[in-house]
Write a structure and sequence with these properties.
The chain is α+β, with helices and mostly antiparallel strands and about 100 residues long. The chain has one domain: GMP Synthetase, Chain A, domain 3 (2-Layer Sandwich), CATH 3.30.300. A 4-stranded mixed β-sheet has the order 1-2-4-3. A hairpin with a 2-residue loop joins β3 and β4. The protein is globular and about 45 Å long. The N terminus is likely disordered.
C-alpha cells in the first residue's frame, strides 16, 4: 500500500481483519501522532491500556460525532480509545 492516512487505515484494518499489532505501539504513535493531532478538536495522543492490552488514547475537547468519524477504531492493530477532556491548559510556573 502507498501512503495511508489513519482514516483510510481504519477501513484497511477492518477489511483485512488486522487486529494483532505487528509494530511496537511507540512506532505506531510516532508515525501517526502528527496526523491525529491535525484533526480539529484533538488535543492529545497517548499510549494507554484497554482491557489489559496496549491501546492508543486520543484526547478530544468534545466528543462530537463528526470528529469521532474521522478517528479510526483500530490503528495498525491497536485499539483507539477516545476520551473527552476539554481544553488542556498549562499551569503557571510557580504552581506545583
Amino acid at each position: 500500500m502507498g501512503a495511508e492516512t489513519c482514516t483510510t487505515k481504519k477501513f484497511v484494518d477492518q477489511l483485512e481483519g488486522n487486529t494483532i499489532p505487528v509494530k511496537p505501539i511507540e512506532e505506531v504513535l510516532n508515525k501517526n501522532t502528527k496526523e491525529l493531532m491535525s484533526l480539529p478538536g484533538v488535543v492529545g495522543v497517548a499510549q494507554g491500556v484497554w482491557e489489559g492490552k496496549p491501546c492508543i488514547i486520543v484526547y478530544v475537547t468534545k466528543k462530537e460525532p463528526s470528529l469521532v468519524k474521522k478517528i479510526p477504531d483500530i490503528l495498525e492493530g491497536y485499539q483507539i480509545i477516545i476520551e473527552e477532556t476539554g481544553e488542556f491548559k498549562a499551569l503557571p510556573k510557580d504552581q506545583d
